[in-house]
């Protein structure tokens, strides 16, 4: 098997795995109050799973009154794509058209597959195959989920109300390898759970995000190997 075929194989595996839970997003979005058309447009234009789940999760809890918090939560999670874009800039090509297209396809999965390759050309292959593949698959499964969710009704009957939480847990779990990362996760979770009964829907997520940033920035516990870094510094 050639190196390029191996990259295709890796990328398509990621495409299939990621696209699958677009069904959950579509069903959850419809259950939160969006219609099928709005759900599909959200996937077409936003196209970043974490932010989409954040948006519908907060919107479902508070309705229209929680819309500002839903938008803020989605935006906060989407900020990481800026860092991905800076990392992908020398990989995706120099023409304006390619850069504009790449901006839309720069997500966790396309970035991960690209930077795992050693050869510059294979990095491009990994990025574009993964990004475009997930875009197509995610939007197809979003439509399927929205149509199915519209028929099924209450998502709690099928356990789909837990889809957003499960998606975020899947994003968080691989990162819990250091004491500091665990401290950030626990602090944010405790704050969010404590504030949920007390303040309007959406705000606990934003407050927890601020707590996570503060705890993560000061890096009080250091790395698991015992080394420490000051605020804003990176251990090497």
Question: What do you see in this structure?
Answer:
Helix 4 packs antiparallel against helix 10 and helix 11 packs antiparallel against helix 12 (203-218). The chain has two domains: 3-160, no CATH class; 176-236, no CATH class. Helix content is 73%, strand content 0%. The model is unreliable at 223-236 (pLDDT under 50). The protein is globular and about 55 Å long. The chain has 236 residues and is mainly alpha-helical. The longest helix is centred in the middle third of the chain and has 33 residues, at 120-152.
The ordered string of helix (H) and strand (E) elements is: HHHHHHHHHHHH
Ends distance: 36 Å
Task: Please give the count of helices.
Answer: 12
**Low-confidence runs:** 223-236
Percentage of residues in DSSP E strands: under 5%
Biggest sheet, open or closed, and with what strands and sense?
Answer: none
In angstroms, what is the radius of gyration? 19 Å
Q: What spatial form do the alpha-carbon principal axes imply?
A: globular
The number of strands is: 0
Structural class: mainly alpha
Q: How helical, in percent, are the residues?
A: over 70%
Kindly state the mean pLDDT as a whole number? Answer: 78
């Amino acid at each position: 098997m050639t190196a390029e075929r191996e990259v295709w194989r890796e990328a398509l595996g990621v495409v299939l795995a990621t696209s699958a839970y677009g069904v959950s997003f579509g069903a959850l979005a419809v259950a939160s109050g969006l219609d099928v058309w709005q759900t599909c447009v959200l996937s077409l234009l936003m196209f970043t799973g974490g932010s989409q789940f954040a948006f519908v999760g907060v919107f479902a809890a508070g309705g229209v009154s929680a819309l500002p918090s839903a938008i803020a939560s989605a935006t906060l999670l989407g900020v990481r794509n800026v860092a991905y874009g800076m990392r992908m800039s020398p990989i995706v090509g120099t023409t304006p058209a390619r850069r504009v297209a790449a901006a839309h396809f720069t997500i966790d999965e396309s970035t991960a597959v690209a930077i795992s390759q050693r050869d510059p050309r294979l990095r491009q292959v990994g990025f574009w195959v993964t990004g475009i593949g997930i875009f197509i698959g995610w939007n197809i499964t979003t439509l399927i989920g929205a149509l199915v969710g519209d028929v099924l009704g209450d998502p709690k009957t099928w356990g789909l109300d837990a889809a957003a939480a499960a998606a975020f847990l899947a994003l968080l779990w691989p990162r819990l390898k250091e004491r500091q990362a665990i401290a950030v996760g626990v602090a944010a979770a405790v704050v969010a759970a404590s504030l949920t009964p007390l303040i309007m829907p959406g705000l606990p997520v934003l407050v927890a995000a601020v707590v996570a940033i503060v705890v993560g920035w000061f890096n009080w516990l250091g790395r698991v190997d015992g080394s420490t870094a000051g605020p804003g510094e990176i251990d090497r």
